Amino acid sequence: MKEQINQLMDVVAGFSAQTAEELEALRIRYLSKKGIISELFNDFRHVPNDQKRDIGQLLNALRDAAQEKYSYLRTEIEARNCVSEQSDMTRPADPVGLGTRHPLSLVQNEIISIFSRIGFTVAQGPEIEDDWHVFGALNFAPEHPARDMQDTFFIEKNPDILLRTHTSSVQTRIMTGQQPPIRVLCPGRVYRNEAISYRAHCFFHQVEGLYIDQEVSFADLKQALLYFAKEMFGEATRIRLRPSYFPFTEPSAEMDISCNLCAGKGCAFCKQTGWVEILGCGMVDPNVLEACGIDPQKFSGYAFGMGVERITNLKYQVKDLRLFSENDVRFLNQFQ
Ligand code: PHE
User: Fold this and answer.
1) Ligand 1 pocket check: which of 147, 163, 166 to mutate, most ligand atoms within 8 Å of Cβ?
2) Sorting pLDDT into bands at 50, 70 and 90, what band is 178?
3) What whole-number distance in Å separates Cα of residue 90 and Cα of residue 77?
4) Contact in structure between 174 and 210 (CB atoms under 8 Å)
5) Is the pLDDT of residue 149 over 70?
6) 23-32, 73-82, 240-249, 256-265: which has the minimum mean pLDDT?
7) What does the pLDDT read at residue 97?
8) What's the gap in Å between 154 CA and the centre of ligand 1?
9) For residue 127, how many other CB atoms are within 10 A of its CB?
10) pTM for this one?
11) Residue 65 Cα, ligand 1 centroid: separation in angstroms?
């Protein structure tokens, strides 16, 4: 009997079945109630007692092996049927949806790319800042309204820790960390305590620029900004600088571009003026250079700062700022 079992072991190891019918035949022949293995279990009664232990173990092993092989073949055949009978292999696959870049990223990257062509590199800094980097070093008087609770989100008072209200804080870090020539762009998210509406949000994005070297002049600033406006909004774009005030620049200006919707003729978008404001700029105040350890007798510089949302609105006519942070794919998918 021992020999018979061993032979059957080989037979079981060689089991093969291509179809469900072949497999069923195997099952009936070996594994059914009247199958060969059951018969062996019946004959087990006649095995002499001193061999029962050995033969019993062998017999169990044979049954387990046969069952295991049977299950394996069954899964294989089922899997094959599933593919051949239920799937249409010629059907096109489901399309894989490609994501799109966020419009603010697109525009920010474009601004960076334009200025990088005239030698600007990118610098980044923390969004949680102290008062000195955001205001103190930048010539804000202690009672300046921008420091007021209404504009700034404070995290801690005395010493003041706050969310930066502009990325000029990164420029402070650059100026205190290195000597001119300095030519950097500071893109990033900034926070201001404003009521959320279609035209204002409690956070937005800026790209600010800073250039410090010997004999940097207002004419250099104007040239760089004209170049930017033409690259960003088209060759026909004109710019206009209006005197303005920022604590950290002197003289300061606000820059308008000719309205790119009506080409300066006057429309609802530019409130019939033909011009739209896009950024603030000016010559770095000597007080700022001094506070940051740069000799204002030797060096001068210009700075500018713009809101990425504003530029994006102009480029793509997005009417409601809130769309930028709502993550609605129907909106985002339009920016391929
Ligand atoms: N920091 C200013 C703002 O946030 C923008 C600015 C930057 C103005 C540099 C002039 C020069 O409004």
Assistant:
1) 166
2) very high
3) 21
4) yes
5) no
6) 73-82
7) 79
8) 20
9) 15
10) 0.72
11) 80
Q: Superfamily assignment of 103-335 in CATH?
A: Bira Bifunctional Protein; Domain 2 (3.30.930.10)
Cα 323 from chain centre:
17
> What average pLDDT does the segment 284-305 reach?
97
Residue 106 identity: L
Best residue for ligand 1 mutational test, from 210, 246, 278 (most atoms within 8 Å of Cβ): 246
- Write the residue with the smallest CA distance to atom 9 of ligand 1: 304
Task: Return the sign of the alpha-carbon dihedral for residues 198, 202, 205, 211.
Answer: positive
Average confidence score pLDDT of the chain: 92
Residue-wise pLDDT for 52-68, tens only, equals: 898 889 889 989 998 99
CB atoms within 10 A of CB 91: 7
Q: What are phi and psi of 170, to 5 degrees?
A: -70, -35
The Cα–Cα gap between 90 and 296 comes to: 74
Atom 7 (ligand 1): residue with closest C-alpha?
305
Q: Which of 313, 325, 333 is nearest to 107 (CA)?
A: 313
Q: Which residues line ligand 1 (CB under 6 A)?
A: 166, 168, 208, 246, 249, 280-282, 303-305
Q: Whose CA is nearest to atom 4 of ligand 1?
A: 166
Report d(CA 14, CA 88) in Å as an integer.
33
**The length of the chain, given as a count of residues:** 336
Cα-to-centroid distance, 242 and ligand 1 (Å) = 14
The residue whose CA is least distant from atom 6 of ligand 1 is 305
Residue 295 CA to residue 222 CA, distance in Å, equals 24
Domain ranges for the chain, please list them: 2-86, 103-335
In ligand 1, the atom with minimum distance to the C-alpha of 252 is: 10
How far is Cα of residue 94 from the mean position of the Cα atoms in its chain?
A: 25
Asked whether the predicted pLDDT for residue 82 surpasses 80, the reply is no
Atom of ligand 1 nearest to the CA of 208: 7
Alpha-carbon span 105 to 157, nearest angstrom? 33
Position 83 confidence tier, pLDDT thresholds 50, 70, 90? low
